[in-house]
Protein 1
Amino acid sequence: MPVYKYKPEFVSKVIECKTERLTDSIEARYCLSIKLNNTLDSSYVFIMLNPSIAGRDVSDLTINKLCKFSHSLNEVGTIHIANLYPFYETNSMLLSSLIKNLQNENKNLFDEVMATNRQVLSSLVKDSKKVVLAWGDCPDLFDRQFHIKQCHDFKLFLKEASQNQVYVIKTHFERLLTVKNSPRHPSRPMLKGLVPYKESS
């Protein structure tokens, strides 16, 4: 697997990378906070599906793309990357088995990790100008009902937090959301801007 670095033309530094080693094979990343290479002081939160490999010293394709896109907006100084599920897994199709295994082996640990994930997101949302939903469709092999509930809970949480500045990414596709009405993940499409999120977008 190639090693990706943060690109200095878009990124000034990684401010924080909050991770936790859960088991020998599972690690969580609760947030990745990146100062862009500009003098702006506003911040946005992007909520994606789960971390791939990016950390304090190593980036990945999606994070590099998101940094370049955010820098091009010329309206935000820091981006915080959070996730529906904080577990590192590059292949989203393997995420389901990772979660099931952890739930079966240590349900309390799984619940604690998800609670910490929510607490970190709550803190980020309070101080951010915009929250961008960007988790994409439910992965293959994933428990669809579990995923739908998680997405619903996050949207409800944003309403309870009185965060009204909720956006999705506008891409080159005509439809703002996916065919399954999910906010688009930034990994594949051409990113064009941010548009206020509405359930029926």
Protein 2
Amino acid sequence: MSGFDKTARRLRLCFVGWGAIAGRVAELLADRQPAGVEIAAVAVRDAGRERARIPAGARPIAGPADLAGLDIDMVIEAAGRPAVAIWGEAALRHCGSFVISSTSAFTDEALLERLIAVAREAGSRVVVPPGALGGMDALAAAAVLPLDEVVHTIIKPPRAWQGTRAADLVDLDALSECTTFFTGAARQAAGEFPQNANVAVISALAGIGLDRTLIELVADPALSRNCHRLRVSLGS
């Protein structure tokens, strides 16, 4: 049967953090008005302070324990790397899915293993969305083969690297040509550039892992937007 079943239960979302990412998703949901989705809760540092942009009907909560009894289906982390460890276990025990935007948290292998174990125990899911990357399904499928190499090149305008360790490695203001300033494993790239190389973890987890996936970070003054290039080599 086509169309939305009005008797079906609505998908209840909780956002951890209410910054640019969460706000934009809320705008898209409001514009498209999916009948089966509602923002039921928002986790913020000060749950008692009024925030005009939080959707009407969304309950402000202050800590992971507040998830109990809210009947949340999906918790979406949009608050930065520390929030993954703080909220992860409670989200997986009280809700169906925990969606992670700050994937650089998974450079901590123990954290990743712990959350996967909790998800298995609770029957819930750890969800790593592809974000800006396309083709992750193809990479994941190829990963069952004996891959020799996965190289993920992240290319951004110099201004996008300002405020990161890139500024210590190269003079971003003086660049006149495309410059590679970092080459290393995905674990190192995401650890040293957590705001700009989160996607390194996504391609690594989809492919051959954080320590075997090679990341190249590039500043290109000719670009006006971010670009990604993946190169995969099959084993013989």
Protein 3
Amino acid sequence: MTLDASLPADLLQWVTRFLPAVANVTDVSWPRGDSRVWRVASSVSEAYVKLSPTTEDYAREVYGYQHAVRCLAAREAPRLLSADPGLRAIMSSPLPGLVVKGLSLTAEVETRVHELAGRLLRRWHDHPEPVPAHARDDVMASMAEQADEATACLERTAEHLTDAQRALVQQVSREIPDLAEGLPLVFQHGDYSPRNWLWDAERGTQGLIDFEKSAHGLAVEDLVWLCGAVWPTRPDLKRAFLKGYGRELSDAEQRVLPLLTARLAVSYLNTGLTKQEPMLVERGRTVLGDLVRAAG
């Protein structure tokens, strides 16, 4: 038996109630402080076990699994096998494929992956979920907070920005709340990026994982990572994604998406400067530069 010492004893005890004779435990957490995920295997089966960072994350993820069952096929999303609110533990089925982030793909396959990602997200967004009474208020509060954050970050980073970049961040503060007010709500994935896409090369299919940030919000919020990290230099992948998504973004969505992305970028820059993390500084500057050039 090979057991990773980082698996808490109470969690192992819970796991063995549903997966007897555990023979192997492997820590597969992301390299960040609040990520705690393990692959557990017996001689006949395998599962993934996750400890949610917060009670809210746990509740969101459990609901996200329920949503996935309703809108995605069995090979497109893992299934929830068991959950324990006291431990904030979630056990899910394995999904075929490899995480797309970091994969070496041909141009043809990469285009296909992004088109399939667009299709998955459209089905995720289109399947209706009851909208909580407070959802619209929560979204507007989030937009206001992001506008305020952009203002605060701009005060601390202004000397590191060009005139055009400062003007873009100022737009975030002025325009995001009003633009967001008229946009419809969807059930978001919440962390839609290649680190949560699985590519099954053998079958040519794609899957989706990690639902702890799922909630009602604006559809374009699920596109912010792509807008900042991929689309500025890969318009071909943007076209493929939107082809899969099956619709062009509305005028209001096209206006708010780069502003939401700029808010994230200036936050990266501010955090990087404050904590002296060059990687975050470079990421923030790069995204802001790309957004200014795209606005041209």
Protein 4
Amino acid sequence: MAQIAAAVPAVRTTAQLELAGLAAPIPDAAARPAVGQGSSSNDLGFELGFDHARHGVTPPVAHLSHQSPLLQGWQAGMATFGRRAHKPNRHTRLWLQLRVHAWQRGRSFEDVQLTPNYLQQIAADFCPILRSPLSEQQGSVDRVRDDAGYAAGNLAMMSPGANAAKARHGWASASELARSVAQGPIRSIAGLGPQEWRRVAVLCSFVTELPHEEAAVIPLHVLPPNRLRLFNPIQALQALVTRQLATPGWSARLARLEALLPNEALRADFNRFVLALAPRVLHVGKGALTETHEIRWALEDAWAQPLVQKRWAKFALQLNAAQAEALVQRAAAKRLCPVHVQRHPEPRATEGWALERGGYRAPAH
């Protein structure tokens, strides 16, 4: 698997795609561990309270009872650190809030890679779904893939409203809602219109193992948020090519990328795709885009054009997943990527995602 940082998607190799089918389905309600029960939950609560004290943060009011293991851990931490506690920043506070949220719901939380520094890297100024501004109080960080836990590669920041609407929806269900709302007569569901549901669907598709032929024809209605891992190599190539237009020198870089293609017919189809995409990005932006989010939205909106989708599909369907990933790797090696590429070998690509338990914490024994 390769990860592209800045948009930081991750790409699976062919072998890893074959292993993806081993992930367990979401457990039914009877199989899910009881929230807040068992010694492991108490131990986690105590550790969480101790970390609140370590960072000088008072636990939520709901946990300030003598029966709460979180309170007991906080009291033990206060006795240990006292006034020597670290001064928390906003990302440390958010990290503690996410851990409390996961602990209360019995969700798995991977705390080796998922750190305050990681949360700082995925911070966003605008919601990728609603495109509304996100302040320190408005941003909501949650899992993109609902049957996985809180772990690096499965989180994105968005508005609370978009997060609430997305809850428990994946690629297939969000796509169906987008089609339904677009057909009418209802013009919105859970506060989202057809465009917003399309963005939800594409966001979910990034962390969903799809057949190459299906992933190859998905329009890029939303660019991958920072540090999100992509399970479909063709989408990583799609994001890499699209992002080229966001930085100067894109024409020369795309020409060099075109030269990496194995035959003249494929190079011609790639060139036709670029000639469809680039003018539409410029048209959307009217040549006066300066802000990062405006450029991002222009790139995404260009994918609403049928000609762009048609020409991309014609090109992408001539590749297979292995060829798509190889192109991403070769582009990275030749410094043709406007973003950093990092590989994640299996099983580390989904390490800590708890896919075998549907994203829930292991039950206490």
